[in-house]
Design brief:
The protein is α+β, with helices and mostly antiparallel strands. Helix content is 30%, strand content 25%. The protein has six domains: 6-78, Orthogonal Bundle (Arc Repressor Mutant, subunit A), CATH 1.10.10; 86-160, OB fold (Dihydrolipoamide Acetyltransferase, E2P) (Beta Barrel); 166-230, OB fold (Dihydrolipoamide Acetyltransferase, E2P), CATH 2.40.50.700; 253-488, no CATH class; 500-555; 647-745, Nucleic acid-binding proteins (OB fold (Dihydrolipoamide Acetyltransferase, E2P)). Strands 3-4-5-7-6 form a five-stranded mixed barrel. Strands 8-9-10-12-11 form a five-stranded mixed barrel. Strand 29 (686-689) and strand 30 (694-697) form a beta hairpin. The two termini are 14 Å apart.
Amino acid sequence: MARRKTDQRVKPSGGSPAGRMPARDEILAFIADHPERASKRDIAKAFSLKGAARVDLKQMLREMEDEGLLEKRRKRLQRPGALPAVLVIDIFSRDAGGGLLARPTEWDDIEGPAPLIAVRAQKRPGAPAPGIGSRALARISPSEEEAGPPYSARIMKILESRREAVLGIFRKADDGSLRIEPVERRQPEMLIDPELAGGAKPGDLVEVEPVGRAKYGLPRGKVRTVVGSLVTEKAVSMIAIHTHEIPHVFPAEVLDAAASAKPATMKNREDWRELPLVTIDPADAKDHDDAVHAEPDTDGKNPGGHIVTVAIADVAAYVMPGSPLDREALIRGNSVYFPDRVVPMLPERISNDLCSLRQSEERPALAVRMVFDAHGRKLRHNFHRVMIRSAAKLAYVQAQAAIDGAPDDTTGPLLEPVLRPLWAAYGALARGRRAREPLELDLPERKILLKADGTVDRVVVPDRLDAHKLIEEFMIQANVAAAETLEQKRQSLIYRVHDTPSLAKQESLREFLRTIGISLARGAQLRPGQFNLILAHVNDTEHEAMVNEVVLRSQSQAVYSPANIGHFGLNLHRYAHFTSPIRRYADLVVHRALIAALGLGGGGLTADEEARLEDTAALISATERRAMAAERDTVDRLVAAHLAERIGETFEGRVTGVIKAGLFVQLPQYGADGFVPVATLGGEYYHYDEAAHALFGDRTGYGYRLGDAVEIRLANVAPMAGTMQFEMMSEPRPLPGMTRSFHKAKAGSRRGTRAVQKSTNGRARKRK
């Protein structure tokens, strides 16, 4: 039976008499039919509700959210698990009728299998022509056909072409032929003629391009680039670059544009070259896009107050809208950071030279001057387009050492006039942060240190210094100021938004906490401060690591959006990325918006850019996730290669994931995960309890739970895939609240449910 036609559904013009409260199924039908117009205001308008009826509608929608029938995403209501109206998709196959099929580019497997999307044929002249392998930005709507995929897509823009070059390992076969063994299973093996080997040696990682099609046998290729030996990090990061299709070679026109760029002048700029701004970055940083300064506020009306200045590289002065530099930066979306290299958003001439705030060199900047009171509350701020000259290039450790009583030749002269005022201002801002109560997860970051040959030396967890926190808080305040100014000027922008945890994830968290004796009240939406109370409750207990992990998983993913829903994790009502335009396209858009809104000269946001903000936000959200996945995969491959010679050794680990198939165990000293298949856990059958994040033995009730410290043996390593398999050495332990009888009851309940379903289905078939 076909689904209802559009003209049979509730229409925005009003499908019910004015003032009549719609039924729940009518609201759900309207939201399904109009996902792009599903805010509370849209629903009230569609059903002609006014006055008190709107209050009743608001209450009904809140109840539907509480019951899990609806969830809110960027001010729009939707059915739980429904796809957003605009989405990045990957086209992977065709249906029986030849139509293209796609899936969302990013999908959380925890939510179940990714839904299928039917790609509509494009009829208008000049419309994008996607094919299998294309990645595209698409407008999504529920399908009107009951059979087939639940969603359909209209292509708005093709984001990436199918790549021609493949990555593989150069091998010499037993018959003497030269072949390319691909690093991805979906790629075919290739034959290489000796004259097209490009100097590659067996065991080299190479980039290969096809050289024609053979009617029979393996396709043939030509070695384009010898990446290097498989044991070096350079090869491992190149695998990630190709696997995730990250653009890493700048087109000639982009390099030419960068090479011809001229240094910015003083036109439309204030002269701030005498202000002693300093950069504080990692010791190995090559580009510096932010500089800071602070001083006491001498205004008698603000006792104990501070004036904080943050100056950010004026990338908009060099990257003009629609230029080759701009088009390439948008495709890349952001820089990607690997242990041995950076794939930059902008060419080195721009990122490391003209826009890098180098010590003692004149550089253009967009600066914000903020006034805070003694409690860290921002009183006012204003933006300026300036020319600066950084007084010093400092490393985090170097600046912290000076404050802690060990200044060096560089920091000594700066200690009293520059560094102490910075730390005094940070003290006030830290008080304001504590009052704001952002989410405070304890998630240490690991850094891989390499040897000279590119292999892993060791993995370290850098100390978290006040110098890091100072720069972080200054940047957060500058980002808030940018969003506030643009809202005041009614200028469109791209926000950095972080939605509240979904009701389903909150309920899952409640069920988990109940298994370890912590009750979490039902009712209103949780706030970051409540999560912090949970984390404080388990601090220094056996549950600390486990609860931090579960709370992290309960959170939504931060994205870019022209619609503001606030930032839950930071507990801020408005927030926009402004402080890193060298490495993030979102920040460049915000710079352009400020320039246009405040009349600060050329390079401002254009009308065409403003009209495309939704598409731009979706694209750069996708490139950010792509970069994170590539960086994570590289670390996994590096650690797997590093441990490949240590098969059979035992390690201390921690359970970081529990699924029906087994346990994910992380090696804390390396920050990488391996897998323990459930079939290898012992002589009894193990049940999976999703709420408790645990596996329990059927006979004993003993088992393993998320966060457990365990001893494992390294059983197998696949370096190219970045995977490790472990064998559990620790015995299962008794788990509070979970017993053998509990599992038998649970299993019986499942069997009973299946029996009822089977009986019901049988009766239904007879009725038909």
